[in-house]
């Protein structure tokens, strides 16, 4: 099932269940997807683009929750964390650090990278290979450890 179709179906379920929080989050996802789809004049959105948008929304919620925690606004942090959990349902399972390290070791061997100067090559391939499955910051940190 396509991402937008799945979100529409889940919105109907949330409406019937009167789950206001989930419905609001799903509406914001649908809005972001529709906004991106209409940018290029195209009504279709690729899975990769949809995944990138969901990842971005997820990161925004996590960062907002962290800021609210720092400011002592637990009421707002709880809302952001709940939305992040809903968004997480639509993202692929995240890779562990060990799995990321294995993939990065293979990429480094393929590219022949041996210093920090080659980090761009490694990051480019890693970003494509692990898109949506691993956080870019974590990938970058591991690459730095491996190339030192």
Quick overview:
The protein is mainly alpha-helical and 148 residues long. The chain has seven helices and no strands.
List keywords for this structure.
148 residues; mainly alpha; Hypothetical Protein Yqey, Chain: A, domain1; Arc Repressor Mutant, subunit A; 0% strand; globular
Strand content: under 5%
Number of contiguous helices: 7
CATH architectural arrangement of the largest domain: Orthogonal Bundle
**CATH homologous superfamily heading of the largest domain:** Uncharacterised protein YqeY/AIM41, N-terminal domain
Mean pLDDT rating: 87
Stretches with pLDDT under 50, minimum 5 residues: none
Largest sheet: none
Could you state the order of secondary-structure elements as H and E?
A: HHHHHHH
* Number of discrete domains: 2
Taking the alpha carbons of the first and last residues, their distance comes to 43 Å
| Rg, Cα atoms, Å | 18 Å
Gross morphology is globular
Helix content: over 70%
Q: How many DSSP-defined strands?
A: 0
The assigned structural class equals mainly alpha
Kindly identify the CATH topology of the largest domain: Hypothetical Protein Yqey, Chain: A, domain1
> Class of the largest domain, according to the CATH hierarchy?
Mainly Alpha
């Amino acid at each position: 099932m396509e991402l937008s179709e799945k979100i529409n179906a889940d919105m109907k379920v949330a409406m019937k269940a009167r789950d206001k929080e989930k419905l609001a989050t799903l509406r914001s996802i649908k809005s972001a997807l529709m906004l991106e789809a209409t940018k290029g004049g195209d009504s279709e959105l690729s899975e990769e683009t949809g995944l990138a948008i969901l990842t971005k929304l997820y990161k925004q919620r996590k960062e907002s929750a962290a800021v609210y925690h720092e400011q002592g606004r637990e009421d707002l942090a709880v809302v952001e964390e709940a939305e992040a959990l809903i968004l997480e349902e639509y993202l692929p399972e995240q890779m562990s650090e060990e799995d990321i390290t294995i993939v990065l070791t293979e990429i480094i061997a393929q590219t022949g990278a041996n210093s920090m100067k080659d980090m761009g090559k490694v990051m480019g391939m890693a970003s494509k290979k692990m898109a949506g499955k691993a956080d870019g910051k974590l990938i970058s940190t591991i690459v730095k450890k491996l190339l030192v």
